[in-house]
Amino acid sequence: MMGTMRLRQLSHSIILRILLLGLGIVVVGTTARYFILSQFLREDLDKVVASQQQALASYVARDVDSKLVERRDLLQRLAASLPRQLLGQPRQLRAWLQERHELHPLFNQGLLLVDSRGAILADFPERPLQARINLADREYVQAALAGEASLGRPAPDWLDREPVLPMAAPVRDEQGRVQAALVGLTPLATPGFLNLLLQSRIGRSGGFLLISPRDRVFVAATEPELVLKPTPPAGVNPLHDRAMAGYRGTGITVNAKGVEEAVAIVSVPSAEWFVVARLPTAEAFEPVTRVQQYILRNSVVVSLVFLVLASLGLAHVFRPLRRTAEYADRMTRGECPLEPLPVLRNDEVGHLTAAFNRLLRKLSESQAALAQAAHHDALTGLPNRMLLADRLSQARVLAQRKGSRIALLFLDLDGFKPINDSLGHEAGDEVLRLVAGRLSGCVRASDTLARVGGDEFVILMGDLDSQAEQAAARVAAKCIEALAEPFPVQDQSCRLGVSIGIALGDGESAANTLLLQADQAMYRAKESGRGRYVIATT
Prior knowledge:
The chain is an alpha+beta fold and 538 residues long.
């Protein structure tokens, strides 16, 4: 009855949380900033993971509890309906057990009737060796004979050693006196019993544990090798020790194998057990790790978003939510484009989908902003040194394939420092933006103009023919001419010049070598009078 009520409640409300965490980190300039940002992301994700683990553990705990209550109630009803006159008739009693077993096959391992001395009066299915076993020392039998329905210790079956869960209920006479105990045996691996816990995974490597603190054993686990194994001794896992003492909640701990895990602990009331949902922090905080690695390697951050959608309840209620989760997962794996999902319902599923669409839009905007910041100069909008290196690498590959030439022009402004010193940095920034605009008009659409320093620019010309030197010289001359015109700044007319070093190469030329040659040629241009270009000699 209680299980039916819970299912009915779930059919009217989707108890599902979408856990989204967008990790966006700007380019880090210092080690201190790296650690601060990493700590912030870790703490934020910790809360989200804790909430997810708590929801999953609660759902599994409710499922286990409903299955136990269902079996306990059934066993009590069977015990109450047992004809008392059959207690002295083993054959008729076995037939009655067989009939009830066929009508209510929840106790797959069998039904037993035990007298007040612990002897087995009848069993079904009948196993000859079983009749020799006395159950007087079993706590659950003692409790039933004392008048209380009881759940036994999960243990291997006394004959075939299959892990079973025993349960017992008192059999009373008309005056309410206990005459015997009805025992039901359920294999822990029986279909439909603990399937949700045994077969479910959290992420790639996480899972669930079902623990009996009274018996100090793992009742069930996603990892089959843990079933009926003793729990870790005190001192091995501090959070486990707290859970055995009654703590229920979330936390980070190190398990007996030395693996750090994010866990959530939820009680199973009917059995005094508890469910543990666990996920290695290496997987739970994987987005943070990837962000950290990207920062260290490229001084840039990539945004990562993951979406976890879990369905709770009947299949027909949560099917739209599962489809949404599957489609979102395909998008995260790159199997389909990032695009908004259709909002088909005005309930929790629809609200969740709409929230996902809003997050998707923000993610696209954030990714675009990060890409711009990572590869372009903030002042001029020109490609920066990182993007220049990437373009140069592409130009070398193209040159190798086509046998073409590459030209690299290193530009350093003449007379910029006096402007900066006399008129201020704001005026200097304005001059740099004007310089960038004029230089942009001197290059081809296929060329790359990058700002690589304070007043230093680089022009990359790729896919050149045998006239590469002449082409580079023409561009250099255009740049010198463009910057010779005065610059109007703060109601003043400022003059600048530019010294240019040119390096020529092909697909075999090293990028650092070309940059060094162009830089050295630029210094020779300055030494020879400025306002001119010099071609490096190889």
